[in-house]
Design brief:
With 209 residues, this protein is mainly alpha-helical. It is 51% helix and 9% strand. The chain has helices at 2-19, 27-34, 70-78, 92-104, 116-126, 134-157, 172-195; strands spanning 38-43, 50-52, 55-57, 66-69, 82-84. The strands form two sheets. It has a three-stranded antiparallel β-sheet with strand order 4-1-5. A hairpin with a 2-residue loop joins strand 2 (50-52) and strand 3. It is elongated.
């Protein structure tokens, strides 16, 4: 059943992405950008250095923790060459606390890693055995994203002409998916201001020299 739920969630995300072809980036492109994020691994092999176009990484010693980009960690994991040390924020306690904070505040977004959704998705898919309580973590990640997205849309829909745009604590995938809501809101406000200029706030009065 947990596997069926994961597949269902994945299909829903793909269907959502397919409906929004005008997004600046696809989900896959955002995930690709996240793969430069540094993450800790425990190697299961011995090697002085691994050389790639993007840089040199190592040394690798069994049992000796080292930091590598996410893309390399996933490649090593796929070949059973390492264990990935789950980031501190990808835990039930941390995510539960953040979820409660999101529920208590109507508009404010809690601070999360910029690529939290992409990193969590990839680790849960490719390295779930390195994540404690992966099924529970997946549920919390989905709940967090749903609540944050709803708050973002609500703040956009209730925005007035003279309101500043608040993008504090937006994360990569949230910015990408909500961009269409922002553009639509700006278009509507512009059309309204052209049709009814009196609704715009008056210009500031000049100050005396």
């Amino acid at each position: 059943k947990p596997q069926k739920k994961k597949k269902k969630k994945k299909r829903e995300r793909k269907m959502w992405a397919a409906k929004h072809e005008k997004l600046p980036f696809t989900s896959a492109q955002i995930e690709f950008m996240s793969e430069d994020t540094s993450i800790s691994v425990t190697p299961l092999f011995k090697e002085s250095m691994l050389t790639f176009v993007g840089g040199n990484y190592g040394p690798f010693r069994p049992g000796l923790t080292t930091d590598v980009p996410l893309w390399l960690a996933l490649a090593l994991k796929k070949n059973q060459k390492c264990n990935i040390l789950t980031p501190h924020w990808l835990s039930v306690d941390y995510l539960q606390t953040k979820l409660e904070m999101e529920r208590e505040e109507d508009t404010y977004l809690c601070e999360m890693p910029y690529h939290y959704l992409e990193i969590a998705t990839q680790l849960l898919h490719h390295a779930s055995d390195d994540v404690r309580q992966p099924d529970r973590v997946q549920v919390l990640i989905d709940d967090l994203y749903r609540i944050r997205s709803a708050k973002i849309r609500k703040s956009i829909q209730t925005m007035e002409n003279d309101d500043p745009v608040q993008l504090t604590n937006y994360c990569a995938m949230e910015l990408n998916y909500q961009r269409m809501w922002l553009l639509k809101a700006f278009d509507q406000m512009h059309a309204l201001s052209v049709a009814q200029p009196s609704l715009l706030p008056p210009p500031p009065r000049p100050t005396a020299p």
